[in-house]
Amino acid sequence: MTHTEPRERLLEAARCTVALGLNQGTSGNVSVRDGDGFLITPTGMACDALAASDLVNVSSDGTVAPGQRAPSSEWRLHRDVYLARPAVGAVVHAHPRFGTTLACRRQHLPAVHYLIAVTGASVVRCSAYATFGTEALSAAALEALGSSRACLLANHGMVAVGRDLDEAVQVASEVELVAEYYWRASQGGEAIVLSEKEMADALERFRSYGQPPS
Ligand SMILES: [Zn+2]
Q: Could you give the CA distance from residue 151 to residue 70 in angstroms, rounded to a whole number?
């Protein structure tokens, strides 16, 4: 594996979050575990304007070697997820419209659609509120994440994680879709939430769903 490979993959994933409508302008950030630390998108730059050389290597203690751009203001959130969840290989943070709408109501996303099983849980929890970029936000996000692959951040946005970039982007995209279904289905009254048994069956199927790992 050459050193440039993770940069190309991260660039592609960051562009993907824009193409999927998960992020707009300079909002949101994507990272991938890289050696002892991780590689993350820089702060204040639109994803579709990024070059591979704009991506920033951050070590596990938060150090950024000189000569690089400043990392995303949420680098600490990404770092703390990698420290707390050894199996996580990539993190997507986004401000997608429907997930963030629920987060502004500090509402959990319930299982109104079986696709929520992509998170490995039957609810996407909304964290307590904390200022962006702070240690308190990391703690709130980790608590809401638990062992699942996604959470909402109160009055802020969403975090999705995966074994790799493809999975993290897919989780973010599916959670946003379920948030949209929930929001739309709630317009005419209360949406019907799948029962524990119905979700247990869906989660079981998801465990054996898809292509075997290569
Ligand atoms: Zn944010």
A: 26
pTM score, whole prediction? 0.94
Distance 115 CA to ligand 1 centre (A): 24
Structure tokens, 120:
């490995």
The residues annotated as belonging to the active site are: 74
With contact defined as beta carbons under 8 Å apart, do 114 and 138 qualify? no
9-25 per-position pLDDT tens digit: 999 999 999 999 998 88
By the CB criterion, residues less than 5 angstroms from ion ligand 1 are 157
Tens-digit pLDDT profile for residues 68-115: 999 999 999 999 999 999 999 999 999 999 999 999 999 999 999 999
Instruction: Measure 158 CA to ligand 1 centroid, in angstroms.
Output: 8
DSSP class per residue in 72-103: PTTHHHHHHHHHH-TT--EEEEE--HHHHHHH
Chain centre distance of CA 71: 17
Banded pLDDT at 214 (limits 50, 70, 90): very low
**Across 41-165, where does the E strand assignment appear?**
56-58, 90-94, 150-153, 157-162
Distance of alpha carbon 60 from alpha carbon 35, whole angstroms? 9
Q: Tokens for 39? A: 């590689």
Q: Cα(141) to centroid of ligand 1, in Å? A: 12
